[in-house]
């Protein structure tokens, strides 16, 4: 059967849209970004425990005193984990995505319920959205809306919209036809029949759909974290990238708290606003006189409580105020914004936080965000990220350079040469070179544990290295991820089992485990890369001082490994603190790497 080039048609369609409708995507991005910023500003303005109290009052009103206490305890736990701002960022993204999804889903569901033609046309599209892998939805979102919250909101609402449409249609179709006929017999207009008969009776089912939209939205934000949305999704992705089980568990717990709160509140709200639910709520308030733990205040009491807490927030001045930064001779940045992206590799983390600290000391407003390789290069090429310091060129990231090189500025190599290799534990005494692997294929189950299939070294391994040593028939390269590879190495090493993994130097695994780099007598891996800094086109013109600093920047192996060790010992969330300590222990490096007027003579120091 001839090859159907469906993917090529999709690529052509996407290119056409990007060429002719870029203005529309930019407008939508601006609107979504503005909505998200507004909601996030409201959620992050009060003190964490104060907002936790407001959310607890809402839970008390909707579900009772016990629910209010548990809600406060859950949000206090998030704050104690140091994840409050990330949690509120995630909540803001979910709320915006849910609101927009419902604005589309409910009218569309009503239309589908009242028209069999519309229902038949919509059903295949909903099937596609509900069965398409969520990661796939993120790809067009990034292409059309770039990195950041706009792409996350779009991907989330597309992923979550289907149950809203289906449940709205189902709820209206389940309304007793005799009630609708009776309303029409009394001369009720179709509009009044919809709003006074069908929607009130369908409300419990519709609210169940709202609940599902929110839950699916929360499940998507973790994946959307790969697009640089930050929040708890970004925290989970950072933990995966660094194989930090504890931090990933903490971020997961925070997501669970948000999910449970939103699930319980939306379920209770559906009960509160439906006619039958209000009668049940009245009976519950009567019963709560006997059961104090089930007491639920009247709506007016809950509103007064929220208002009082909001006034307390204002009186305590917890909303903060814009501060001013005095300019000095060394603060040449004058508050200009710089966005750095980085990969979850040790040298990338170390160099990124080093430059974040140095640029902030020079007066720049710096944000650093972790990405996967593909989104990172896309972000730099499209100008949404200013620069990144972990481009392995010309080999490892050569594929990305060939694709995006025209839109990137190479600011030079600051470390090298690096090396790519296959690695085995030292206890595998008979395996010392790539040529030895062929005789041990059975011991290794014919598997080489790889990393992300998009990584440059994976293509080089499959297309060249295996063929050079005649291993293509004996071994299968297992595509996965860097964390999965490291987890498999850790498991095999603990059990002293044979394993061969893809690795590179420098890497912390060589200090944590006793490993052997397999020799490459044929030079199939090449001579090694330099670690380059690449920036968006025009960055050097916009920030000539920073570009000059980055071009002149270089680190020795001793400096790099020392900084990596300091960051590793400091632990999660304290990367920049570790950099500050390291700079204090290495005086003169700041003025050497980021010289300003009066300190240029120090550029050659050290």
Query: Percent of residues in beta strands?
Result: 5-15%
SS elements, strand count: 10
Indicate the radius of gyration in whole angstroms.
28 Å
Strand order of the largest sheet: 3-10-4
Query: What's the overall average pLDDT, rounded?
Result: 84
In this structure, how is the largest beta sheet organized? 3 strands, antiparallel
Kindly summarize this structure in a few lines.
This protein has 606 residues and is mainly alpha-helical.
List the helices and strands and how they pair.
Layout: H1 6-20, H2 22-44, H3 48-63, H4 65-80, H5 84-114, H6 116-131, H7 134-145, H8 149-173, H9 177-185, H10 190-224, H11 231-242, H12 245-273, H13 275-287, H14 299-315, E1 337-342, H15 346-361, E2 365-370, H16 373-381, E3 387-393, H17 398-404, E4 408-415, E5 419-425, E6 447-449, H18 456-468, E7 476-478, H19 482-494, E8 501-505, H20 509-512, E9 515-517, E10 530-536, H21 539-542, H22 544-552, H23 557-570, H24 575-585, H25 589-593
Parallel strand pairs: 1-2, 6-7
Antiparallel strand pairs: 3-10, 4-10, 5-8, 5-9
Helix pairs in contact: 2-5, 2-8, 3-4, 3-12, 3-14, 4-12, 5-6, 5-8, 5-10, 5-11, 6-8, 7-8, 8-10, 9-10, 10-11, 10-12, 11-12, 12-13, 15-23, 15-24, 23-24
């Amino acid at each position: 059967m001839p090859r159907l080039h469906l993917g090529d048609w999709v690529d052509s369609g996407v290119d056409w849209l990007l060429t002719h409708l870029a203005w529309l995507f930019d407008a939508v991005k601006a609107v979504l970004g503005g909505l998200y910023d507004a909601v996030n500003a409201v959620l992050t303005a009060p003190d964490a425990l104060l907002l936790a109290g407001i959310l607890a009052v809402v839970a008390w009103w909707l579900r009772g005193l016990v629910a209010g206490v548990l809600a406060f305890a859950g949000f206090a736990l998030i704050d104690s984990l140091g994840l409050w701002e990330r949690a509120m960022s995630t909540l803001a993204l979910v709320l915006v995505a849910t609101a927009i999804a419902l604005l589309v889903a409910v009218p569309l569901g009503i239309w589908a319920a009242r028209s069999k033609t519309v229902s038949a046309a919509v059903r295949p599209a909903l099937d596609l959205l509900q069965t398409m892998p969520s990661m796939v939805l993120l790809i067009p979102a990034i292409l059309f809306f770039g990195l950041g919250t706009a792409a996350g909101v779009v991907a989330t609402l597309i992923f979550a919209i289907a149950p809203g449409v289906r449940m709205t249609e189902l709820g209206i179709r389940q309304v007793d036809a005799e009630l609708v006929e009776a309303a029409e017999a009394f001369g009720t207009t179709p509009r009044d029949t919809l709003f006074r008969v069908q929607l009130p009776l369908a409300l419990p089912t519709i609210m169940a759909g709202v609940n599902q939209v929110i839950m699916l939205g929360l499940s998507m934000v973790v994946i959307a974290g790969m697009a640089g949305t930050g929040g708890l999704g970004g925290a989970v992705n950072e933990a995966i990238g660094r194989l930090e089980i504890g931090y990933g568990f903490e971020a997961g717990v925070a997501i669970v708290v948000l999910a449970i709160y939103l699930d319980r509140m939306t379920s209770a709200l559906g009960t509160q606003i439906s006619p039958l639910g209000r009668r049940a709520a009245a009976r519950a308030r009567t019963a709560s006189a006997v059961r104090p733990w089930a007491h639920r205040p009247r709506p007016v009491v809950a509103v007064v409580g929220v208002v009082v807490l909001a006034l307390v927030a204002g009186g305590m001045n917890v909303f903060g105020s814009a501060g001013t930064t005095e300019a000095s001779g060394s603060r040449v940045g004058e508050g200009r914004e710089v966005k750095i992206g980085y990969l979850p590799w040790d040298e990338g983390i170390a160099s990124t936080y080093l430059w974040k600290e140095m640029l902030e000391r020079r007066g720049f407003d710096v944000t650093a965000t972790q990405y996967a390789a593909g989104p990172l290069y896309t972000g730099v090429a499209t100008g949404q990220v200013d620069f990144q310091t972990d481009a392995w060129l010309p080999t490892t990231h050569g594929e990305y350079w060939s694709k995006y090189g025209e839109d990137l500025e190479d600011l030079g190599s600051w470390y090298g040469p690096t090396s790519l290799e296959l690695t085995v534990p030292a206890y595998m005494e008979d395996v010392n070179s790539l040529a030895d692997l062929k005789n041990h294929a059975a011991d290794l189950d014919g598997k080489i544990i790889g990393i992300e299939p998009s990584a440059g070294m994976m293509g080089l391994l499959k297309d060249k290295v295996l063929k050079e040593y005649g291993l293509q028939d004996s071994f299968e390269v297992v595509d996965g991820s860097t964390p999965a590879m490291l987890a498999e190495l850790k498991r095999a090493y603990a059990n002293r089992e044979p394993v061969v993994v893809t690795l590179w130097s420098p890497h912390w695994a060589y200090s944590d485990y006793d490993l052997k780099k397999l020799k490459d007598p044929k030079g199939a891996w090449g001579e090694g890369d330099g670690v380059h800094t690449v920036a968006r086109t025009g960055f050097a013109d916009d920030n000539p001082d920073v570009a000059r600093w980055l071009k002149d920047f270089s680190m020795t192996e001793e400096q790099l490994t020392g900084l990596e060790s300091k960051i590793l010992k400091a632990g999660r969330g304290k990367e920049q603190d570790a950099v500050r300590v390291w700079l204090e222990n290495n005086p003169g490096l700041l003025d050497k790497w980021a010289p300003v007027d009066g300190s240029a003579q120090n550029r050659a120091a050290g």
